[in-house]
TrEMBL record:
InterPro entries: ThiF/MoeB/HesA, ThiF_NAD_FAD-bd, Ub_act_enz_dom_a_sf, Uba3_N, Ubiquitin-activating_enz, UBQ-activ_enz_E1_Cys_AS. GO terms for biological process: protein neddylation. Pathway: Protein modification; protein neddylation. It is an enzyme of class 6 (ligase). One of its GO terms (cellular component) is cytoplasm. This is NEDD8-activating enzyme E1 catalytic subunit. Transmembrane segments: none annotated.
Length: 319
């Protein structure tokens, strides 16, 4: 009896959303005590990214009643991740983010099945992505978002009246954070603007003049970009730099340190080198939590119809 009561209490708030009619529900919403079980049994969700936002998303989705979840991420865990990516521990450093995150959530939330994929998103074929009802993005890369957007849009079909066929629409929920700021948005190909439609909303990446890097560096970032953009090619003769290769990043870091010492510049660290080379903005745990909660709620709303979805876009600032 205690176990049954505990289970009911666990899903109390979710059941309030799924078993009651309301004024802002979706057009096809049919409240039912069975709806939560149906979502857990039939809905398949893909989370792209298992970093700061991805860890929160996996937890939130599992606690929202989703039981069939996949997560894909090519990265391994680093010490610098531990302050905000709460599913990881010191002993996990060097392991796959997707594998460890899936394991940790399944240990804490009974009944959920999370399948990890430790690979690049481009390594999966189109059929893989078509198996999911909805795709949730927890990425820090514009290029990766564009790729998933193109995949989702490729499934879209139109009827004889040039209207999107509902069954071919692959919903995407895009979450992103940058320091204290973040956004969550709903992308329904053929219905709402897709990622490429408003890519111009993202601020341009910071660029440094090569003459400054080569002749008059003034900041730690100048020293790092000198090692990355100039020194690498001089020494390696055109060999492609891989920002995801730890040996390549270590080489750039060491060269940047030499450059900084030569000009009396402080502030070059390995984590800062990663941030400059990969254009990483420092992440705030509370921002990740807020944005992932908004994204998970949109997933539940789309799958169940228990409320109308976002009108495309939401921004948040916790500063």
């Amino acid at each position: 009896m205690a176990s049954s009561s505990s289970e009911l209490a666990r899903w109390r708030d979710i059941d309030k959303l799924l078993t009651r009619q309301g004024n802002i529900v979706g057009p096809g919403f049919e409240p039912s005590p069975q709806l939560r079980q149906d979502i857990g049994e039939f809905a398949r969700v893909l989370v792209v990214g298992a970093g700061g936002l991805g860890c929160e998303l996996l937890k939130d989705l599992a606690l929202s009643g989703f039981r069939n979840i996949d997560v894909i991420d090519m990265d391994t865990i680093e010490i610098s991740n531990l302050n905000r990516q709460f599913l990881f521990r010191l002993q996990d450093v060097g392991k796959s983010k997707a594998v460890v995150a899936a394991k940790r959530v399944m240990e804490r939330v009974s009944g959920v099945n999370i399948t990890p994929h430790f690979c690049r998103i481009e390594d999966k074929d189109i059929v893989f992505y078509n198996d999911f009802n909805i795709i949730v993005l927890g990425l820090d890369s514009i290029e990766a978002r564009s790729y998933i957007n193109s995949v989702a849009c490729s499934f879209l079909e139109y009827d004889s009246d040039d209207n999107p066929v509902p069954e071919s629409i692959k919903p995407m929920i895009d979450g992103g954070t940058e320091g204290f700021k973040g956004h969550a948005r709903v992308i329904l190909p053929g219905v709402t603007p897709c990622f490429e439609c408003n890519i111009w909303l993202f601020p341009p990446q910071v660029k440094f003049p090569l003459c400054t890097l080569a002749e008059t560096p003034r900041t730690a970032a100048h020293c790092i970009e000198y090692a990355h953009l100039i020194k690498w090619n001089e020494v390696h003769g055109g060999k492609t730099f891989d920002p995801d290769d730890p040996e390549h990043m270590q080489w750039v870091y060491k060269e940047a340190v030499k450059r900084a010492e030569l000009f009396g510049i402080a502030g070059v660290t390995y984590s800062f080198t990663q941030g400059v080379v990969k254009n990483i903005i420092p992440a705030i745990a509370s921002t990740n939590a807020i944005i992932s909660a908004a994204c998970a709620l949109e997933v539940l709303k789309i799958v169940s119809g228990c409320s109308k979805t976002l009108s495309n876009y939401m921004t948040s600032s916790t500063s």
